[in-house]
């Protein structure tokens, strides 16, 4: 062993008691630092594992929503791609316990078979039996169910016709099933299956697909197709899958059907009633002569006083290429179709019924196809252009599309369309027409005239007809031309999306490191102080080495070696402590701090690399202050070191220090004032809070610099000092070690400032939830449903249909929101959102109300509402959106003007561009776009799944209860907007709480440093204190002296911190900050510091006098 | 009643019987020297009188105060007002000037309005008129000890205890301090009990006691 090493080891061992504290402080810093990194690891590992559990062995997915393709398509693609596939039905549902006491909404109901579970994280060969349901643990736990028990499942019933169409049935939107729990699926058994990014396990039920198909009357249909990897582990690429889909899909998969109709023609039609716009466009591009049909249900055909109720009217016209020669169809059209768009051709039967002849005026009254299901009747008048005979094409009952509730009815009295029908008005002759001729139209329009009345986002044709003899390949060519993606049949890389969402939106490790900064800094400061004290104690040893010819560098190496040994041992011990600390934080995150991570069950991760990084960083951080202390000591004169005169800085240094401190103090005061006035006069919101925090910090620096100047000046001016009281002696003693004294005051001031100013950022919901320019937007209630709500709650008729008490709705305004499911982008989710949930709202209504508080907007004219930005014209593929400022900044990591890529139902990519942000709003977690653009991009998403309810305070609760009662089957739940906002704010408040707690721990550690300084001062001055006792000072006189000395520092530190925190507090007036909490924190800090000082004073007065006098 | 009375005072330390029933009387304004070999327990007697130590048995009274039975506060008051102490080492506070060091006892206990004047007067009396504002580091050993002497006298004590006051001084300084002690004994009317190895200093005292083997005997002047 080398001599130096022996010296290092001997020194370390000899001073082991002093060193133990250095090791302890280093261990604390290491534990906190590494522990914070471990928390980050745990979050990353949890999200990664969750993502892997959600996606299992699935690589590609095709989710077609309300369009149901052939389940056999999956098998065809499996053969083509040589990869396993699973076809499934994916629907929303609500689960109820048999006693109805527990109701869980937002349940994903999957109709599956064995193929689905073969793609699970841990594949297995089984499937639920008929009437059996396999639940995931989340749902089983929420319902309190175990295998063998039954429960009621209400499933969204698919509608062949988009439910936003007024004629679609809105009554039976769900199907009730009673099922028995067969198995509780673990996360590795696809219990966590989800194609979204939400890390928390959402409720899931798996039932047999075949059984569900039967119950829903969806023969061999599916709306979810999953593709896994081949046995060799190779997964098909997205391109291959898309190509395979194009090769194998049929018109049937797009819910398009063909049949033979009148005149040996073939017809393309859809159970969805309207042909999607891309279908018509693709058919026209084929160049085939086509007959376009658009048939609609009218409530009345009236001529003068006579009226015929409830009839079909068809608009007919040529599409595509004109036929090369006149054919039979041409002649028929010439006979039936009116010559002009203002004319109507009517059946002779109708002419007789209305007693109307050519030239007479007929009024058509019908339910307008609006943007939603609002019942609005329109009336249009036409002149009778011709009266036609009931024959040929005009006698074809197949001109009526498959209107749900109509087309398969034997009698008119069996009609059950979505819109109100007054069966009393149906006469015998109407009944006879229906029984004999079903939906044969009673009148005809030219196609352009019909389109002008009934074209919508769902399409402008109900059928296309062509001559199969002339164009036998029409269907095949249409299939080839039509991109299945335009009908919503599009594969996406589900695995990549899921794994990408397995990344935290915020690095929680970094965040905790930031939150623990003060605690770590306090521990490191303690390391520096303890090491410094140790060196001062050994100053004569240093001097001896110098006297013996050791160079300053050699001495520094020697002591640094000892320091490195201490830091190393501390880092190793701290790493063990980090495991405990990390576990403790994780435990807290699942308990008291669960607000920070929501329901996410975190898994501990102990990566060796993280432990090594944490230990290494802590080791380096502990060595740095040691280096600084050593550097200062090495500069001392050998003689001074030998005499252990290391405390007082030279007079020249004092003078210079006073000058510099004053300069710093004045500069900081100027900056603080500048920041304060700028923040109060020119800034708003978060910018103001940030500027005020900065101003407070500048003031803190100013005060500490002033204190330093005062201490140095006191030390410098001690020669001229004259005693008179203990207080003056105490003040002079305080100035004896200006650096040490300032360190204590600065630590306490910084701790107090941080803890108190953080309190100023605490959030609370607005006191008046009815205030429109607030986070609630003036809406007291928020209603959310699992299944879409189609009732028109804004009209008395709609409310009456829903059997709601009209009196409850006096002074109530409801704003419905359409929801396109997506990733949760609020602070409630830790996973990085890729495609945030989209909400469609009538933006003009929010603009009119002046709802919500604007945080920032892009190019918003003065005085204009930010909601007007949502309807502003942009490029065709850009949809403007508004989001919550916190969600946009922290979850999405976007700024104003940034865009997020989406693909619409037609497979068209578009960009949602953020044009404005709202402050602290209940719309967190989603992006809001205008309803019109929402419908354009997602035409099949019908009904509202969220309602913002502005209700008078006294009616809010009964209204909420009534809505929940009326729409229980839809899983509707109403919450107070304040509660919703508080849930969002809980996340920030929890982080603030964590920051405060860790800051407070730092403050405690800092005050432990204060205690150390007191003890050190007492130890160094034990001779002096003994002398005072020898001179007749009583114990209480000594205590008074020591208390005054150190309480001055405590008081100065806390007062400076408290005063500096006043500026940030200005930003929070009226928010969640509690001045009681301010006072409590301040008192706790002061009491803790006082205790340490008292302890030091007690130790000082209990030391044996004589031995202390002898030194 | 004498100013200082020790009756049968005994004190043992672990493994050593230091004092075996000491009897001592010192009248007001008198001076006495305590001599004896090193380790004989001379300083222990001073420490017992000042209340720094408690005897194993025996009685100690200073100005009628029972030092053995006195509480800590009573002892502190005794040391502050009635007994001055000069140590072999000066024990001046390095951060204070000579004047401030001298004033230290006046910061506690009864108010002493003339403290500053008295300190200046005494410092001038001991030859430090020009050194009032100097810190100990700027004073010689003899000067420091004189400041310590002034500090011991600032409260006008009835009894001044001096423990080897010249022990750390050179010959000249020691002689000067010895002369000063004698003069102040007379001028201030303070009784003086000095522990010393210095024969010249001992000779200046009116009484001399020798401590040998734990027993005290008075030496008669030759």
Q: Helices, strands, pairings?
A:
The complex is a heterodimer of chains A (1111) and B (222).
Chain A: H1 3-14, H2 16-55, E1 58-63, E2 69-70, H3 72-81, E3 85-96, E4 103-112, H4 114-117, E5 132-136, H5 137-143, E6 150-156, E7 174-185, E8 204-208, H6 209-216, E9 221-222, E10 224-228, H7 238-248, E11 257-261, E12 265-269, H8 277-285, E13 290-303, E14 306-319, H9 328-336, E15 343-347, H10 348-354, E16 361-367, E17 377-388, H11 428-437, E18 443-446, H12 447-454, E19 463-466, H13 474-481, E20 491-492, H14 494-500, H15 508-515, H16 517-537, H17 539-547, H18 552-590, H19 608-634, H20 638-642, H21 651-682, H22 685-716, H23 726-734, H24 738-759, E21 781-789, H25 796-801, E22 813-820, E23 837-841, H26 843-849, E24 854-857, E25 878-884, H27 885-891, E26 899-903, E27 909-918, E28 926-930, H28 931-937, E29 944-950, H29 953-966, E30 973-976, H30 977-1020, H31 1022-1030, H32 1035-1067, H33 1075-1102, H34 1105-1109
Parallel strand pairs in A: 4-8, 5-7, 14-18, 15-17, 23-28, 25-27
Antiparallel strand pairs in A: 1-10, 1-20, 2-9, 3-4, 3-6, 3-10, 5-8, 6-7, 11-12, 12-19, 13-14, 13-16, 13-19, 15-18, 16-17, 21-29, 21-30, 22-23, 22-29, 24-27, 25-28, 26-27
Helix pairs in contact in A: 1-18, 2-14, 2-15, 2-16, 2-18, 2-19, 3-7, 16-19, 16-30, 18-19, 21-22, 22-24, 22-32, 23-32, 24-30, 24-32, 24-33, 30-33, 32-33
Chain B: E1 4-13, E2 16-26, E3 31-35, H1 42-50, E4 57-62, E5 65-66, H2 72-81, E6 83-86, H3 98-103, H4 115-125, H5 141-153, E7 159-163, H6 171-188, E8 191-195, H7 199-204, E9 207-212, E10 215-219
Parallel strand pairs in B: 3-8, 3-9, 6-7, 7-8
Antiparallel strand pairs in B: 1-2, 1-4, 4-5, 9-10
Helix pairs in contact in B: 5-6
